[in-house]
């Protein structure tokens, strides 16, 4: 079981909380309105080899059931991002690995109308703080397409290191796409992730 789940995380007007089945209407409304904006960065299913049954895209309820199952098994933290109580995006801590690695990866998306207002850096800072302080993870990784400048700015603001390129890493928007790897270890933020972000915001 996942000792760090379920959990709600708060910082100012931003909240991370577990995704729920009853979020369906709000989630689908935001997703539908941002379809064109998110398509370039959204994972897709590669073509099915001849003779195999094509994989269908899961329904919202199937997605939530899968995410909740993974969370219960300690492999994932699936959050929705709220700004002043309104659903504006999603953030998932995935690939949680224990043992000698103690690492995870973070993926996220946000409503275009809410972008550029510090909401997603705050959400990422909340998630990383929870992973390092409460879960005891050692390393967090974020993989981003080189062309996705807004998403890269999120992690660069927070001090993630760029570690290099993973060629043809994920199937996105109909093809295998290269991704830049950003990473951060707990030793690199001795002041804490949230405190770092608060300090950065106060300077501006």
TrEMBL record:
Pfam families: Acetyltransf_3 (PF13302). This is GNAT family protein. Keywords: Acyltransferase, Transferase. Belongs to the acetyltransferase family. RimJ subfamily. InterPro entries: Acyl_CoA_acyltransferase (IPR016181), GNAT_dom (IPR000182), N-acetyltransferase (IPR051531). Transmembrane segments: none annotated. It comes from Kitasatospora cinereorecta. Residues 14-187 form the N-acetyltransferase domain. It comes from the Bacteria. PANTHER family: [RIBOSOMAL PROTEIN US5]-ALANINE N-ACETYLTRANSFERASE, GNAT FAMILY, PUTATIVE (AFU_ORTHOLOGUE AFUA_3G00765)-RELATED-RELATED. Gene3D superfamilies: 3.40.630.30. SUPFAM superfamilies: Acyl-CoA N-acyltransferases (Nat).
């Amino acid at each position: 079981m996942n000792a760090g789940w379920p959990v709600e995380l708060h910082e100012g007007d931003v909240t991370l909380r577990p995704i729920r089945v009853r979020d369906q209407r709000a989630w689908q409304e935001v997703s539908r309105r941002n379809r064109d904006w998110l398509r370039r960065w959204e994972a897709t299913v590669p073509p099915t080899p001849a003779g195999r049954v094509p994989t269908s895209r899961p329904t919202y309820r199937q997605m939530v059931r899968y995410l909740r199952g993974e969370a219960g098994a300690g492999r994932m933290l699936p959050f929705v991002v709220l700004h002043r109580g309104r659903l504006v995006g999603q953030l998932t801590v995935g690939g949680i690995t224990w043992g000698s690695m103690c690492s995870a990866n973070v993926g996220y998306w946000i409503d275009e109308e809410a972008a550029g207002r510090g909401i997603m850096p705050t959400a990422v800072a909340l998630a990383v703080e929870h992973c390092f302080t409460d879960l005891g993870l050692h390393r967090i990784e974020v993989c981003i397409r080189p062309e996705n400048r807004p998403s890269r700015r999120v992690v660069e603001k927070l001090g993630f290191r760029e570690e290099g390129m993973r060629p043809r890493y994920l199937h996105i928007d109909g093809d295998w796409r290269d991704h830049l790897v950003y990473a951060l270890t707990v030793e690199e933020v001795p002041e804490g992730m949230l405190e770092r972000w608060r300090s950065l915001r106060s300077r501006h």
